[in-house]
Automatic annotation (TrEMBL):
Domain of life: Bacteria
Coiled coil: none
Nitroreductase domain segment(s): 58-140
InterPro entries cross-referenced by the UniProt entry: NAD(P)H_nitroreductase, Nitroreductase, Nitroreductase-like
Record's protein name: Nitroreductase
Any one GO molecular-function label of the UniProt entry: oxidoreductase activity
Residues annotated as transmembrane: none
Any Pfam family matching the protein: Nitroreductase
Length: 161
């Protein structure tokens, strides 16, 4: 599969099989994800692997669609507002790298913003100098949805003089 095939075929998964994924595999994908662009090599990401007790406390309405692995990805604030924004963007690139490399191996993800609620930040033990970029269900898809239509990029391009 080419990277183009991976990008076009990747979907958000809302129904996972119970099949386990080894922590060795997750670690391999996370290591590859660190190749994300990040301004001044801040490497602002932190990954929390969420265990059953924490997962239950988060009380996600769909229980992360029964994904066998749940992880939270955080971004460390910078010393300025610009660096904070750059770090969040770099961490989003880290997440996208993870999503694509996992998808290449038949594993999908579900990205939730549940970690942004103050109560859930406390459950996760997130320090004030971090943003929660997302809490992710990770697993083999039970179902893969049909892609939704996208706006043509031609409608999004502006040519400047």
């Amino acid at each position: 599969m080419t990277i183009t095939d991976i990008i076009y075929s990747r979907r958000t998964i809302k129904s996972f099989k119970a099949d386990p994924i080894s922590m060795e595999q997750i670690s391999k994908w996370l290591q590859a994800s660190t190749m994300a662009p990040n301004h001044k090599m801040t490497e602002p990401w932190e990954v929390y692997l969420v265990g059953p007790e924490t997962r239950a406390a988060l009380n996600h309405k769909a229980n992360f669609f029964n994904a066998p692995v749940v992880m939270a990805v955080l971004s460390k604030h910078g010393s300025t507002e610009v660096e904070k924004a750059e770090n969040a963007l770099a961490t989003a690139c880290f997440v996208q790298n993870f999503n694509l490399i996992a998808w290449e191996e038949g594993v999908g993800t579900f990205w939730s913003s549940v970690g942004n609620a103050q109560k859930n930040r406390e459950i996760l033990g997130v320090q004030d100098e971090y943003d929660v970029i997302g809490v992710f269900g990770v697993g083999y898809p039970e179902e893969i949805s049909t892609p939704k239509d996208r706006t043509s990029i031609e409608e999004k391009i502006k040519h400047l003089p």
